[in-house]
Structure formats: structure tokens, C-alpha cells
Amino acid sequence: MTKKQRTIITCAITGAIHTPTMSDALPYTADDIAAQAIEAAEAGAAILHLHARRPQDGGVTIEPNAFAAFLPRIKQATDAVINISTGGSLKNTIEERIAPALKFSPEMCSMNMGSMNFSFHPLAKRYDTWKFDWERDYVAQSDTYIFRNTFADIENAAKALAPHGIKFEHECYDVGHLYNLRFCMDIGLFKAPIFIQFIFGILGGIGPEIDNLIFMKRTADRLFGDDYHWSVLGAGAAQMSLATTASQMKGNVRVGLEDSLFISRGKLAESNAQQVTKIRRIIEDLGCEIASPDEAREILGLKG
Ligand code: KMH
Ligand code: ZN
């Protein structure tokens, strides 16, 4: 009997882009990050994608101590796969960004596959209804606005992290990033089977249309054959519809307040768990099953 397809739900708890001024639900103290991560795991997230925040103002930090304030609590309360971000903020060097993953050697960490303009522009339509102070909340974080992931950065990160046996969540924000990933595999930086996060709807990357999902998937099939796993992250309003479509295409899904602050059109989510519960219900109602953390470990070949 063939094994039933299981959908891995990743929940990205807080990220580095949204600010506490945008939603009261966005966790930024260690207590809140731990509590929401635990609740998301209980709701069905097999993987927890984690960033750290400064408890005093919610700004991004890549201080390993900030991760140390919530990681043990999450590990003690859940068996979810820990995935530590190497995204940092737009100001950090790649060496600073990988420091938490090097220190904690989690089962997974992110690996961003190309440089790009990233996300916010004050005139972008999707931001115009938020209580968002562009100067205070975003420009202050960056004077370049470029999310830098050069080939040299990727190579340095891959080589430094290689001894840890960490599985990468390869963040691909556009079709070109899939070609970057193929190139990096060809020069020996990453080995199959890889895990790709197709990302849609970040300003600066590919848009959130279903045609684009099909195009990304077809391109990945051509570049990586059968030997890869994939998941979909739709940013903002596209989150649930793209995740639903991905699950029906036998892909995996990512939700969480890092990617969207909303639970439905115009309605802020109360928590990460609320988004996990929603996508889990959709997946199960449509006849699929979700993967437990151990099933995710087996599917992705994690070090455990
Ligand atoms: N913020 C997401 C669009 C990372 O953490 O390295 C992608 C992300 C990047 O999660
Ligand atoms: Zn992230």
C-alpha cells in the first residue's frame, strides 16, 4: 500500500519585517514568542521558523542570547522541528546572520537564495491601511533597502554551516533564485534532497498569482527532478489561498504572522495558532493529512 501524502505545516512565528505597531498579536518578547510557538505546534505546525526580537521595542535582533531566551522553553514543551532564521535584518552581515544557527545547531535554518529589493515601499498598496510609521518602523532598520544574499554570502554561509548537518529551508522569492540554487548545488554547496520554500507576494520578488506557483513548480521539477521537497509561502493576502493550492498540488505549506498578519480579508489574526488551525482544517477538509514533527523529520531527512 502506498503511504498517504502528508502535508508539512511550517509556522513562521514573528519574522523581521512586521512591527508591533501593525498588530497586537505579533509576538516579540521571549515569553510571547515561546507561548505562540508552543500553541502553533499544538495546533499542528511540525516546523517552527523562528526569529528573535528585542523585548523592549520589538525590533529585530540576531543576538544568540535573544534566541536562548525562548528556544529551551519551546524544545521542552514541544517536539516540533526548530528552524532558525538566518535572514537577520537588512543591516546585518551574513556572518552575523548565521551566528544563531551556528550556536544552536538546529535541525533546520533558512538559506536565502538571492539578493533583492525587499518588501516595503510606502506607496505599495497593501501597506496603506496599516498604522505604520514608515520612518520609525522600517527606514530606521535599513539605509540600503537591499536584502543582500550574494553568491559569496551563500557560499560562506553554506560552508560555515555544513559541519552542523542542518537542513536548509531554501528561500526562493523568484524564479531566478531556483537557478541560483541549482548553480550552488552544481558547485557542491548543497546536496539533494533539498527543501525549497517558494515565496510569493513579497514586493521585489515574484507576485502571488497561481500561474506563478505553477511556473515555479515546473521550473523546480526541471532543475531538481524528483529529488526535492517544496513548500509555499504566500505573503499577505495570498497566504491562505496559495497554501491551499500548494497542499492540493502535493506541496507543503508555511503560515504564521511573519508572512501575514491576517486571518481573513481585513481581519487581523489573533495568533499564529489561529492561522495554523485554519490551514490545517482546510487541508484535512480537502482529504489530506498533516505531518507530525517526526513524520516531517523522516520526509525531509533531518538529523533529529
Ligand atoms: N520573511 C520571509 C519572506 C528568513 O527568515 O531567512 C522569508 C524568510 C527569510 O523567512
Ligand atoms: Zn523568516
From TrEMBL:
The entry's keywords: Metal-binding, Transferase, Zinc
One Gene Ontology molecular-function label: 3-keto-5-aminohexanoate cleavage activity
Organism superkingdom: Bacteria
Keyword tRNA processing: no
Cofactor dependence: Zn(2+)
Annotated protein name in UniProt: 3-keto-5-aminohexanoate cleavage protein
Organism of derivation: Nitratireductor indicus C115
Lineage: Bacteria, Pseudomonadati, Pseudomonadota, Alphaproteobacteria, Hyphomicrobiales
